[in-house]
């Protein structure tokens, strides 16, 4: 590992807000006497990614902070967010994981006109689901996300969850030059056709702090969100037993992660509950060991010396209340399949494939590096993209995704959450619903959803280089 391959950590805590909210399955704004009004400004800024004594790094930011402000919303209550663009280029905001009206989805050309420099756009929606979500640009997204544009969006449950603290770790991966500035070279051939733009510095909530201070006996809900361009993570909490209670904002059956590792691909979120059972004054590392031979300490849990908060762990159920997701009927579901092809050593042939080449980033030799069902759509989404398939509103869809490549792909669906049915023929455990499904090389995953949300919706890999170089498609709900 290079000497300049360093990792920077911090935390930002949030106390639970004990609020009441009416749960609504509707995707349209609910009738309410008031609407929650917010404003977000997109502009260049500065951040000390290496800590208080380090250099200022030029970034792009929401409201001048990296990450952007954590937006806390109420389930079933309408929100109106005005986004002001002070960049020198177009932008949009995609509210990742929120089941919202198509016109609010933030895909330039496909669902809205881009927000031009000096202009603004008003996003209005009512979040039907409680959970951990996030927001980011969908215009020149490789560069804009890579320069810092990301923020958490948390929708509170109608009833507070029985924990002592509710914390957020928004993880970002930066490729920094020797002077501490963001390195150039976005969209290189190597990144586009292999694992994507991996960085050399990881931050938690954008600021530098060596450890998370905890107290023996407390119960913490920790919301993990991976906002990196390409970095996969596999987190181990040494000496502790994390219990997964939600994936991509959707509650699941509480369970221990496989092998004790929380695998978190770009765009994924995992909510865990941690009972702090270490001794007062002790310290326990949080290790990321996804990449062979490149394990590192992301941060640590540092216990204060105070006596335990309680003698025994809280005797409260861990399961979160389910969200109002429609259940697909598999007996009469429409079957669709997508096949991921391409990349270095991928086995997928791209010669002669068609494609929507507008707004493209370079792949291999200036051509697309990836395809879905033989078709390469490059860029961020734009008018004129031909749908891969069309579904009637209300139909259940059984979707099979096959990864023929040699690379990992977190596949993200807009506007819906997918019930994961099986992976490589084995039933998926824990009643998982996800909007971003990580596919290992040669994986086949079966999932299902109800097409209850009309519009043209993107389905793409959330390794930004892969999306920009062709690993993107669109489906239509009429």
From TrEMBL:
The alphabetized UniProt keywords are: Metal-binding, Oxidoreductase
- Keyword Protein transport in annotation: no
Domain Plastocyanin-like intervals: 52-158, 194-281, 383-477
What CDD domains would the database entry show? CuRO_1_CumA_like, CuRO_2_CumA_like
Return the InterPro entries for the record: Cu-oxidase-like_N, Cu-oxidase_2nd, Cu-oxidase_C, Cu-oxidase_fam, Cu_oxidase_CS, Cu_oxidase_Cu_BS, Cupredoxin, TAT_signal
The keyword Oxidoreductase appears for this protein = yes
Q: What's the protein called, per UniProt? A: Multicopper oxidase family protein
Q: Which organism is it from?
A: Mesorhizobium cantuariense
**Record lineage:** Bacteria, Pseudomonadati, Pseudomonadota, Alphaproteobacteria, Hyphomicrobiales
């Amino acid at each position: 590992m290079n000497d300049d391959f360093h990792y920077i950590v911090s935390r930002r805590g949030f106390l639970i807000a004990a609020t009441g909210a009416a749960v609504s399955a509707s995707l349209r704004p609910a009738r309410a006497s008031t609407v929650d009004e917010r404003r977000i400004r997109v502009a260049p800024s500065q951040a000390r990614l290496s800590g208080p004594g380090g250099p200022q790094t030029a970034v792009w930011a929401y409201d001048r902070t990296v990450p952007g402000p954590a937006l806390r919303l109420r389930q079933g209550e309408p929100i109106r967010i005005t986004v002001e663009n002070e960049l020198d280029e177009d932008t949009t905001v995609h509210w990742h994981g929120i089941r919202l009206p198509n016109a609010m989805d933030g895909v330039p050309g496909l669902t809205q006109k881009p927000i031009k420099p000096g202009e603004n756009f008003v996003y209005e929606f009512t979040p039907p689901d409680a959970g951990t979500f996030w927001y980011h640009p969908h215009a020149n997204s490789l560069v804009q996300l890579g320069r810092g544009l990301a923020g958490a969006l948390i929708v509170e449950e109608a009833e507070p969850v029985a924990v002592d603290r509710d914390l957020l770790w928004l993880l970002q991966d930066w490729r920094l030059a020797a002077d501490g500035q963001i390195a150039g070279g976005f969209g290189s051939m190597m990144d586009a056709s292999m694992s994507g733009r991996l960085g050399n510095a990881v931050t938690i909530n954008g600021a530098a702090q060596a450890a998370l201070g905890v107290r023996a006996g407390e119960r913490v809900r920790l919301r993990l969100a991976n906002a990196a361009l390409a970095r996969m993570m596999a987190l181990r909490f040494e000496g502790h037993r994390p219990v997964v209670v939600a994936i991509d904002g959707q509650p699941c059956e509480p369970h221990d992660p496989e092998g004790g590792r929380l695998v978190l691909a770009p765009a994924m979120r995992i909510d865990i509950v941690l009972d702090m059972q270490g001794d007062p004054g002790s310290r326990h590392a949080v290790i990321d060991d996804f990449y062979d031979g490149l394990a590192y300490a992301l941060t640590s849990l540092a216990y204060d010396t105070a006596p335990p908060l309680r003698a025994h762990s809280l005797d409260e159920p861990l399961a979160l209340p389910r969200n109002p997701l429609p259940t697909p009927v598999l007996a009469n579901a429409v079957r669709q399949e997508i096949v991921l092809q391409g990349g270095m050593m991928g086995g997928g042939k791209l010669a002669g494939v068609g494609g929507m080449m507008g707004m493209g980033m370079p792949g291999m030799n200036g051509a697309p590096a990836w395809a879905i069902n033989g078709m390469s759509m490059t860029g961020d989404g734009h008018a004129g993209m031909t749908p891969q398939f069309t579904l009637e509103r209300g139909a259940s869809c059984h979707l099979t995704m096959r990864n023929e490549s040699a690379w990992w792909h977190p596949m993200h669906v807009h506007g819906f959450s997918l019930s994961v049915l099986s992976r490589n023929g084995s039933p998926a455990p824990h009643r998982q619903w996800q909007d971003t499904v990580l596919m290992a090389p040669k994986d086949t995953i079966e999932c299902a959803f109800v097409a209850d949300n009309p519009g043209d919706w993107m389905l793409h890999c959330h390794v930004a280089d892969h999306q920009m170089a062709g690993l993107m498609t669109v489906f239509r709900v009429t």
